[in-house]
Amino acid sequence: MPEFIPPAKPLIGAEERAAVDRVLRSGMLAQGPEVAAFEHEFSEHFGLGRACIAVNSGTSGLHLGLLSCNVGPGDEVIVPSFTFAATANSVALTGATPVFADIDPDDFCLSPASVEAAITQRTVGIMPVHLYGHPAKMTALGEIAGRHGLRLFEDAAQAHGASLQGRPVGTFGHFAMFSLYPTKNMTSGEGGMVSVADDETARRLRLYRNQGMERQYHNEVVGFNARMTDIHAAIGREQLKKVNAWTKRRQENAAYLSQHLEGVTTPPVADGAVHVYHQYTVRVPSDRDGLAAALREEYNIGTGMFYPVPNHQLRPFQRDIELPETARAARECLSLPVHPSLSEGDLERVVTAVNVLARAGA
After folding, report:
1. What is residue 360's predicted lDDT score, i.e. its pLDDT?
2. Domain end: 240, 255, 290, which one?
3. Per-residue confidence (pLDDT) for residue 212, from 0 to 100
4. Which pLDDT does position 202 carry in this prediction?
5. Which stretches within the chain are classed as H helix?
6. CB 3.0-4.6 Å disulfide test: which of 135, 299, 303, 359 passes with 353?
7. Residue 7 lies inside a defined structural domain of this protein
8. In a domain? residue 105
9. Quick check: pTM over 0.85?
10. Are 140 and 220 within one domain?
């Protein structure tokens, strides 16, 4: 059996280890100068032109971003059901209600038409997810938000460096969250980064992440301990130096797969969109689970299913609604390895395996 090809592989090098040692030697481990430097460098690197606030996880970033925008009980925020549960969880944690809309089949992101149909008098915001690293239809969603007096929030957990019509994701919404979990396109070990459109929201977010304090022992709101450590920030600063090359490799790997795969529907890229391929997600028209099992058992290739259970069917969010494109994606989607550690031989094996199994009807 050939060596296992994992569906994802975090890349941590000597530079990250040296950065951690530097922080440990400094004796300043909690939120400090490394975090402040990482916040500035993250905004500069991705061309956001906004303040960025580091937190201890992507979920915290969404939750505190919503709180900082005064989202709370009685409010509704429209979200996709086809995403990780953290998107809906963050809305529910504020006391507001997540309202689930359908996706478009071309990019797996929120459908503007479905969003507009879901707006009620209680709707205060729309929170698209730039799923798999492809930007959502932000122009159309922004127009809808403008017509109805709503705020736009971005779940950019998987989309570091993605853009639409030359504009980086993370600059469209009132805030945007980037995850720094180990399997994302770059990591800080664990953490999140929130880009914010105005100074007051940024100030409130900093309060919420630090027990409600801007000055020690002068608590202004009921806050959380959602700080990022200097250890995590030091890792993230080193990753920033590498992420562009990793993204280029992901895009090259995706281009190879799209050119050679047969029997599955490869992911399209919208005009004017830059896809950063956090996941390379194909559609398998029949027996997706059988193909995934055969790839693992016969070729030692790992895959991912993101997301087989839509949020509106999860126990905390049971909704009796019809979201046909969400249901189809949950049934058909399979993510193949695309990470920058893949060798030419790995890519050839993935293509051969998928094509052979697809022809055999696996």
Report:
1. 86
2. 240
3. 96
4. 98
5. 14-26, 33-45, 58-68, 86-93, 112-118, 138-148, 199-209, 230-240, 243-260, 288-299, 324-332, 344-360
6. 299
7. no
8. yes
9. yes
10. yes
In whole angstroms, what separates CA 100 from the centre of its chain?
Answer: 18
Q: In DSSP terms, which residues pair with 78 in a beta bridge?
A: 99, 126
- How many Å apart are CA 7 and CA 13, to the nearest integer? 19
Please give the pLDDT value at position 1.
85
Distance, first Cα to last Cα, the chain:
19
Instruction: Out of 240, 257, 280, pick the residue that ends a domain.
Output: 240
Summarised one tens digit per residue, pLDDT across range 86-110 is 999 999 999 999 999 999 999 999 9
Do residues 138 and 74 both lie within one domain? yes
CB-CB contact of 169 with 135 (8 Å): yes
288 in Cβ contact with 331 (< 8 Å): yes
Q: What is the residue range of 284's domain?
A: 244-360
Cβ neighbours for 218, distance < 8 A, ≥ 6 positions apart: none
How far apart CA 197 and CA 50 sit, in angstroms, is 6
| Tokens linked to 34 | 């490394």
pLDDT at 120: 98
Long-range Cβ contacts of 11-16 (<8 Å, 24+ apart): 11/242, 11/246, 11/340, 11/341, 12/187, 12/235, 13/238, 13/242, 15/238, 15/241, 16/234, 16/235, 16/238, 16/239
pLDDT in tens, 137-176: 999 999 999 999 999 999 999 999 999 999 999 999 999 9
* Domain CATH number, residue 114: 3.40.640.10
